[in-house]
Amino acid sequence: AACTIRAFTWHPHTSKFAVALLDDSIRVYNSSSATIPSLKHRLQRNVAAMAWKPLCASILAVACQSCVLVWHLDPTSLSTRPSSGCAQVLSYPGHSPVTSLAWAPSGELLLSASPVDTAMLVWNVSTENCVQLQWFGGGGVTYLAWSPDGSKVLAATPSAVFRVWEAQMWTCERWPTLKGRCQTGCWSPDGSRLLFTVLGESVIYSLSFSEYRGEMQGQVGGSKTASIVADLSETVFETLYGEERIGGEVHSMVWDPTGERLAVIIRGHPDAPRSQTVIAVFRTRNSPVFELLPCGFLRGERGAQPQLIAFHPCFKQGALLTVCWSTGKITHIPFFFVSAHVPCASPSRSPISVMASVREQPLFSEL
Amino acid sequence: VLGWRVVAAVAWSVLLLPVCTAAFIVLSGLDPFHPVRWISNSFNDFYTSYVIFCIFFMSVVILVISIFNVEFYAVVPSIPCSRLELIGKIIHPRQAIHSVVHAVMGMLVAWCAAVMTKGKFQFLAVPCTPSESPGDAVPQKCLNEYHLFFLLSGAFMGYSYSLFYLMNNMNYLPFPIIQQYKYLRFRRSLPLLIKHSCVESLYFVRNFCVIYYFFGYIPKVWICTTMDLHVDSKLYPLDTLTGLLDLSLFYHAWLCGVFLLITWYIAWLLFKIYATETHHFPVQPTFAEETDQCLPKILNSNPPLIIKFLALQDLMLLSQYSPVRRQEVFSLSQPGGHPHNWTAISRECLSLLSDLTQRLVAQQEAAAANGRAKQPAGELKVSPQTPGAVAAEDVPLQSQRSNIVPRASMSSLVKSSLMPLKTSPGSEVGSPFSSPALNCKMRIQDVNSPWQGSVPSPEARRRGPKLWTSGSDLQMNGSHHESFPVLSARVGSKAVQPSFIYTWLRNKQEQIKNFLSKRVLIMYFFSKHPEASIQAVFSDAQMHIWALEGLSHLVAASFTEDQFGVVQTTLPAILDALLTLQEVVDRYFKLPHVSSKPSRISGSLVDTSYKTLRFALRASLKTALYRITTVFGEHLNAVQVSAEHKKRLQQFLEYKE
Lengths: 367, 657
Known about the structure:
The complex is a heterodimer.
Chain A: E1 5-10, E2 16-21, E3 26-30, E4 38-39, E5 49-52, E6 59-63, E7 68-72, E8 87-90, E9 100-103, E10 109-113, E11 119-124, E12 129-134, E13 143-146, E14 152-156, E15 161-166, E16 172-176, E17 182-187, E18 193-198, E19 203-208, E20 227-231, E21 235-239, E22 242-246, E23 249-255, E24 261-267, E25 278-285, E26 291-298, E27 306-311, E28 318-325, E29 330-336
Antiparallel strand pairs in A: 1-2, 2-3, 3-4, 5-6, 6-7, 7-8, 9-10, 10-11, 11-12, 13-14, 14-15, 15-16, 17-18, 18-19, 19-20, 21-22, 23-24, 24-25, 25-26, 27-28, 28-29
Chain B: H1 2-15, H2 17-28, H3 35-46, H4 49-72, H5 83-91, H6 93-117, E1 125-127, E2 141-143, H7 145-167, H8 182-215, H9 217-227, H10 241-244, H11 247-275, H12 295-300, H13 305-321, H14 323-329, H15 340-380, H16 394-409, H17 412-418, H18 427-430, H19 436-445, H20 458-463, H21 470-478, H22 480-489, H23 500-517, H24 520-526, H25 530-537, H26 541-561, H27 566-588, H28 613-632, H29 643-653
Antiparallel strand pairs in B: 1-2
Region (Disordered) (chain B): 449-476
Keywords (chain B): Membrane, mRNA transport, Nuclear pore complex, Nucleus, Protein transport, Translocation, Transmembrane, Transmembrane helix, Transport
Membrane topology (chain B): Multi-pass membrane protein
């Protein structure tokens, strides 16, 4: 279904997000300012992904058809149309279309990948130098995910193989899957666990990596096999309104930065009647043992399918899930809980962990 | 450290030599019509004695080339700022030796290649084709011009390689942005190297053909006379157009060039890869004899520059990836409880940063003063023949005011932070009526102060003829007459009265400079290229980038890992240094030409990363500050910093910078 929203990304430190629309423009919404800068550039076509630079006020990298555009925006400016001069063009021959980007969490390097290029590019943005990381077999890269502790990178290819790179000496481990390509993946906050799904299968796999102590140079340290942690095949729920069939393949998956909530878009079987695309939310815990418990489902208005999901990187009161629907609406759904990991600043809060109060509040919605 | 690496690099390049030689033999016997015979002939040739001898000979050549690589390498590129400096660099005797030796090596390689190619290239003297003249029984020795062509083309390629080496700053060792194993780095660069060699060899052969066409007869005649050979009149002489359009000659010369360039570039690449590999410096020495090699000691002493670079790179890596070594940095010494490691490391990093700050401030002052001194120079140029004339009376007043302005334009922030470090007398700042002549004299005694850029100090003049500052010197002379009454009113100054001869000589110098500056040719050579001079200021910025990253990562890690609180005591100093440097860098980037990016050529073997070091410095400075503010958050408000700095920190905390 055609959706007006192409890509969505939250700023890693503030309440600011960027939305890429179908007409190749990007709008930046800020909760503390009323101006909405709109970014346009003649090279900005077919935007596939965006990423804000960590440890920075407002530098946005955009994956376009022929290059990577890095916008250097002024965080205090009130202009609604930043000039094209703010954008830095990073291009490399043979590296187009660029479909995935990932910044290193320490903020210095940018990884860009394209499905037709068998080499991933590691850019040093300020000097515009890049290093090619080449490998053989498997085609280009369809999905990139950098672990939040900065130690590993997941690179999924269009064939039935994905690679996990370690970010110190840039060696990689090759993981062949059983049936299809790795559709999506997400890392735990400490980088020790990778959850991924495979196209054509309705399960979630988990792969654990040994604790990163910094002394193992050049080893990724992954365990031998991946284990299945969740089965999302179709089941029938009896609800007040009748039978509900929920289940199927996973479209995308995100893990919130505290490691407590996992949101998964499950696409129902297209042939079956009354099957729908829902978002399933799980409660997770990574230490001392990994635990994945179903928490609830999210559904939008009638006829609206969820397209993109993302968690707010620094929501203090729990987790904030942002969903972009196919109707062009963006909704923010808060989950209020006290996280076991983040030290509680104010002792006056109740220590009982509250489960979801699943409210739908259309903030920042647009057509 | 470097010694072993060089030996390893040379060993590997010599080991790769037979592979290249084999490829060369196969390709030089190119015979597309008889492939089987071609391959079998080539294989037979591998084992002949002269090929083995040639390989041995070439190893010696590679050894000599590597020695030159080691002698000439530099981690900080030397960037010529004006065309005169560039010419000076080329004709410098060290460079001349480099070129001559490379030319000789090139000739030797070409000789080896010619010998291995066989056919008509093999020998210098061949029997001439028998002539029809009767009675000529003894066949004479003729000059094999092809062989000579080969040798000379080898020499030319050697010389061109040396010239390119110099022009492209190939002696600069760039450190890679990501760490990779050496084999991977080598394998990644190999296709680019081969392609680059092929293209470059094409250019060299083309240039050499042109040169040989015009000047080829000189060595021909010389060889013929010395070795008593005759020129074969039956064959076409090569320095004509028809002679040079020989395809097989062109192909073989090009192949020889490719072979030469590939072997030399491989040696250079291996040296680069080995030299820039990270070295693990221990933070805490376990044995007493290792004390000299541990990281804090090396950073504080003055080791050769590459060791310092490697130490800083190691600091950056340990701060990011190694909790065990970070613990060693944060540890206290055993009997006394002093954080020696942390103090040494932080002191060195902070001194690097403050040194850069001062350098940039000096540059800014010079630039600001140049902009202001141009005005009086404009009106004085009208009458260059009357120095010290009465017409210059009104200039001193103007120049006094112009001297105050650059001083006042320095923000109080930078002044207050640099004040404790300077020993300059406070009276210079106070008096608004000090004449520039006095300032010039006092500067001779106080050469360390970086503030007095308004009138060029003697060492600034020594740096290079800055013709645009001649006006301020003239005004100095002009105000000489007026300065006498002011002199006596001066309090606490030890200025010497400028003698008349001295000023007259200075005057003449300025006159000549003024005259020459009107000559376009002189300006062409002497004018400083702005982009190059900016790059020269930041040429060793890689050190500062690593110091910034290492320091900020350590501070960020100390939030959770520092058990004794050694970092907290130095936190105000660190924040001060970072914020000051950030201000200075921001202001520097407002100068003309600084923020324009030089054009980038992707896919070239030559590394030009030194041209954009200033952008990397600015970005990593900002990232370092954000790293500290993100980790500490609101706790930073408890750190003791000045009010101005507090305001800026607040901006960082709100992500508004």
